[in-house]
């Protein structure tokens, strides 16, 4: 096999793995949008906040240390202990559930029946509020996430595939972190699907996503389900935040990953979980392949910044509801 | 309460005491009074109809019973207790199931899944227990499934069990919605125009199902209907509403001969 062909395959594999990360972020959007019709602009910030909280708890940092010091004239910053990763993850999940409850209780409960644009605006406010809270709670410095996840290229894969091509081919380069991320994403999606299909709450969640009035009439509390989906979105955000954070450090630009999810959503549809996953893959592979075949050789590179949006735009023109989104039919 | 003693109907059904008692209900939307100081009761085991011309306030009344609307005045008594203002899902958990005039089903879910949602109020196993204690959740699912299958057999919809509801024709959707309400084993079943938009044959089927439900399970039913003929055949007692007022209450025969009712339906000459 020619080396170029093999490098093409490597690009596709890496694209798929990048796509998984995009899909992770998009998934959080879909969960909330499906159940409540809210386009949650704060999803990216939730990922940031979750990652910040995880790092903060692991390092034994005192939350709101700056505020406490300013008010009481103390100078505390750390508890002086380290929290094991598993326990820290568990605590972070609890924080995200508390956040979900607060969002429902203090914001969206008062906005029931409002126009979608109002709800969207509320999530923008929420995004910046949460960013501020994250800053105040954990500080604004860049952190590294020491979860002990493997990093760097997998030598094993490289050696295994070395013999496939000729002298020009040195084996596939695949980042171990991407492999872990893919695995975690698969487990997460399988878990979500099992939850939606086989539990009572999952059935109730699907019911609410389908018809609010009917859901009420069979005894489902909408606000309970909304807390549930925001909690799930919070957990998805945590996973996304950890994966992106491990890649590029936990810093405030992490919240911008939300922007990467937008073309995925346009492609996959706002209401479809398989759509978010497949959409993520298409964007991931598409932008890597475009960069490899056209971008780098002819356009001077860096096409990854805009290619996804272009692709989504073209897609929108021909299939506005996305790949798997519900068809929009207006009867006259 | 007049005539609250239990009795047996001509066709041998047992009618018990008062199940639901609406006392002086007044409902306003802004300046419009949709319901004006209406009182009536629903007795255990009976089929109670609410009829009236368009805009009489029948659906509003049903929505008050099921908690979708909250009256400004009046009391709702259920099983001998005054009911606090409740959200619709809380009312459903009390054992009051309903169908809608315009059908509110989960279009993307299968017929079976739709009817299973009717069992949600009966499922007790918590989220964590379902994850840890697989056996118990499964046992509960099986028990609920049995009841659902009984309802499916009863309403003769076995053939469409796995079909997504969105693909069903109107008449069958109405039947699935009834099935979902029945699956909850309600103490009171509210039907909002169960026969609206149906052809004669479908209406006959639906009438038969309503009578059978009442007869076999002893379910108390309150229904709204436009078709006078159907109402008179089905119901034990009828409330007649017009412009938000109650203008008649009694057996079908009593109501049929009530002058005010006749005027409301046929119109009165103004001179």
Describe the model:
The complex is a heterodimer of chains A (332) and B (271). Chain A has 332 residues and is an all-alpha fold. Chain A has one domain (3-252). Chain A contains 13 helices and no strands. Chain A has helices at 3-36, 43-58, 65-72, 85-107, 116-138, 155-161, 176-198, 200-210, 212-217, 222-248, 257-268, 273-298, 307-318. The model of chain A has no long low-confidence stretch (mean pLDDT 87). The longest helix of chain B is centred in the middle third of the chain and has 21 residues, at 134-154. In chain B, the strands form three sheets. Chain B has a six-stranded mixed sheet, sandwiched between helices. The mean pLDDT of chain B is 89. Chain B is globular and about 75 Å long. Chain B has two domains: 1-87 and 188-271, Rossmann fold, CATH 3.40.50.300; 96-185, Rossmann fold, CATH 3.40.50.
Short structural summary:
The complex is a heterodimer of chains A (332) and B (271). Chain A has helices spanning 3-36, 43-58, 65-72, 85-107, 116-138, 155-161, 176-198, 200-210, 212-217, 222-248, 257-268, 273-298, 307-318.
Assess the beta-strand content of chain B as a share of residues.
15-25%
CATH homology-level superfamily of the largest domain in chain B = P-loop containing nucleotide triphosphate hydrolases
- Strand fraction of chain A: under 5%
What is the count of distinct domains of chain A?
A: 1
H and E string of chain A: HHHHHHHHHHHHH
What CATH architecture of the largest domain in chain B do you see? 3-Layer(aba) Sandwich
Q: How would you spell out the order of helices and strands of chain B?
A: EEEEEHEEHEHHHHEHEHEEHH
* Spans where pLDDT lies below 50 across 5 or more residues of chain B: none
Q: What's the assembly state of these chains?
A: heterodimer
Poorly predicted segments of chain A: none
Level of helix content of chain B?
A: 25-40%
Tally of helical segments of chain B = 10
- Largest interface pair: A-B, 20 and 32 residues
- How many individual domains of chain B? 2
Helix count of chain A equals 13
Termini gap of chain B? 40 Å
Morphology call of chain A:
globular
């Amino acid at each position: 096999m020619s080396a170029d062909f093999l490098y093409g395959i490597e690009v596709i594999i890496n694209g798929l793995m990048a796509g998984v990360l995009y899909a992770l972020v998009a998934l959080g959007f879909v969960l909330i949008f499906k159940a409540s019709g809210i386009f949650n602009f704060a999803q990216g910030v939730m990922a940031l906040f979750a990652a910040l909280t995880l790092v903060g708890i692991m390092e034994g940092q005192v939350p709101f240390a700056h505020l406490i010091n300013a008010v009481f004239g103390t100078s505390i910053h750390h508890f002086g202990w380290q929290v094991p990763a598993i326990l820290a993850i568990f605590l972070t999940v609890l924080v995200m559930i508390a956040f979900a409850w607060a969002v429902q209780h203090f914001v969206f409960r008062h906005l029931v029946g409002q126009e979608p644009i109002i709800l969207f605006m509320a999530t923008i406010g929420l995004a910046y509020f949460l960013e501020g809270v994250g800053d105040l709670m954990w500080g604004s410095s860049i952190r590294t996430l020491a979860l002990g996840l493997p990093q760097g290229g997998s030598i094993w894969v490289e050696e295994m595939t070395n013999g496939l091509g000729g002298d020009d081919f040195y084996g596939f380069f695949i980042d171990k972190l991407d492999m872990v991320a893919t695995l975690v994403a698969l487990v997460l999606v399988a878990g979500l699907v099992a939850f939606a299909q086989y539990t009572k709450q999952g059935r109730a969640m699907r019911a609410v996503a389908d018809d609010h009035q009917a859901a009420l009439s069979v005894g489902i509390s909408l606000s309970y389900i909304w807390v549930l989906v925001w909690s799930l979105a919070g957990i998805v955000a945590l996973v996304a935040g950890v994966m992106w954070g491990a890649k590029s450090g936990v810093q405030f630009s992490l919240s911008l990953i939300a922007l990467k999810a937008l073309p995925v959503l346009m492609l996959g549809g706002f209401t479809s979980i398989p759509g978010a996953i497949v959409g993520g893959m298409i964007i991931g592979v598409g932008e890597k392949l475009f960069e490899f075949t056209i971008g780098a050789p002819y356009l001077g590179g860096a096409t990854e910044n805009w290619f996804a949006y272009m692709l989504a735009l073209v897609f929108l023109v021909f299939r506005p509801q996305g790949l798997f989104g519900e068809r929009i039919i207006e009867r006259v | 309460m007049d005539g609250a003693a239990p009795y047996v109907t001509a066709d041998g059904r047992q009618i018990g005491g008062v199940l639901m008692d609406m006392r002086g209900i007044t409902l306003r939307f802004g300046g419009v009074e949709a319901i004006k100081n209406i009182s009536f009761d629903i007795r255990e085991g009976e089929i109670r109809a609410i009829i009236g011309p368009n805009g009489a306030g029948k659906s509003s009344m049903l929505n008050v019973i099921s908690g979708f609307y909250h009256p400004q005045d009046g009391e709702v008594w259920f099983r001998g207790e005054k009911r606090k203002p409740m959200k619709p899902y809380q009312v459903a958990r009390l054992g009051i199931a309903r169908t809608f005039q315009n059908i509110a089903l989960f279009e993307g879910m299968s017929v079976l899944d739709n009817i299973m949602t009717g069992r949600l109020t009966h499922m007790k196993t918590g989220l964590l227990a379902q994850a840890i204690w697989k056996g118990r959740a499964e046992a509960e699912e099986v028990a609920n499934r049995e009841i659902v299958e009984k309802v499916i057999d009863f309403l003769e919809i076995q053939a469409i069990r796995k079909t997504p509801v969105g693909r069903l024709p109107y008449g069958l959707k109405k039947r699935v919605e009834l099935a979902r309400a029945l699956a909850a084993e309600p103490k009171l079943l509210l039907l909002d125009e169960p026969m609206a938009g149906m052809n004669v044959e479908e209406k006959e089927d639906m009438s038969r199902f309503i009578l059978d439900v009442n007869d076999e399970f002893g379910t108390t039913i309150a229904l709204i209907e436009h078709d006078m003929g159907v109402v008179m055949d089905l119901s034990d007692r009828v409330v007649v509403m017009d412009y938000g007022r109650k203008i008649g209450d009694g057996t079908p025969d009593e109501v049929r001969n009530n002058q005010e009712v006749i005027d409301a339906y046929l119109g009165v000459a103004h001179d």
